[in-house]
Amino acid sequence: MRVVVQVSKNASCEVDGKITGHINYGFMLLVGFTNGDTIETVKKLAHKVQGLRVFPDSEGKMNLSLDKVGGEILSISQFTLYADASHGFRPGFVDAMRGEEAINLYNEFNNCLRQYNLNVYEGVFGADMHISFTNMGPTTIILDSKDM
Fold first, then answer.
1. Which of 27, 33, 55, 79 is catalytic?
2. 2-147 adopts what CATH topology?
3. What is the pLDDT of residues 3-43, one digit of tens each?
4. Which one of 25, 29, 126, 147 has the fewest beta carbons within 10 angstroms of its own beta carbon?
5. Is 115 in contact with 49 (CB distance < 8 Å)?
């Protein structure tokens, strides 16, 4: 499982001309799954995301977590996080989990985040989404379950 965490001033997801999720301040997450990911993988990454101390404290140091700053989450499913472009110019996606399995883990991930009393908004799994956000810092952290 991979999660790209981006500290955002604002973020929104639009599908078919309608906003499906919007936050004013917090994390814009790109979330991807690979074969072998499980509920336990999801729980570990959700715990890591909720505890990340990447927001500035009163001295400007990255020291505060999302809940300490009243931030929200926009969670976007992103199978292309498992693209393999090592051979040629057209990426392959054999390492990305099939959608039928990934949607269950994506929903579970978002539910795990909500269990930490976080406001979580979502894109639409498998849809053609248009994502807009303002990255602050810029701060972007890549979490990968294989590193945990």
1. 79
2. D-tyrosyl-trna(Tyr) Deacylase; Chain: A; (3.50.80)
3. 999 999 999 999 999 999 999 999 999 999 999 999 999 99
4. 147
5. no
